[in-house]
Specification:
By secondary structure, this protein is mainly alpha-helical. Helix content is about 70%, strand content about 0%.
Length: about 70
């Protein structure tokens, strides 16, 4: 269980960071609608990618590959 703590914490920090950027852009009054949608959509995509990468890393750890650098 201790092996999963680092990927989960890093993943959650990144998701929180990207979500905060998206929410701040969404409620900004200085931007028009198109800019708000673009600036909200990009962090949303990055949050989804962060979730995917976090799940892949957990799958690697379950499969016995604890050190990612050994592949290279």
């Amino acid at each position: 269980m201790r092996k999963y703590i680092a990927p989960i914490i890093i993943g959650l920090i990144m998701i929180l960071y990207f979500s905060t950027i998206g929410i701040m852009a969404l409620f900004s009054s200085d931007l028009n609608l198109v800019e708000k949608l673009l600036i909200t959509f990009i962090p949303l995509c990055l949050s989804c990618i962060s979730i995917y990468v976090m799940l892949q890393r957990i799958k690697e750890i379950k499969g016995g590959e604890e050190d990612d650098a050994r592949k290279y």
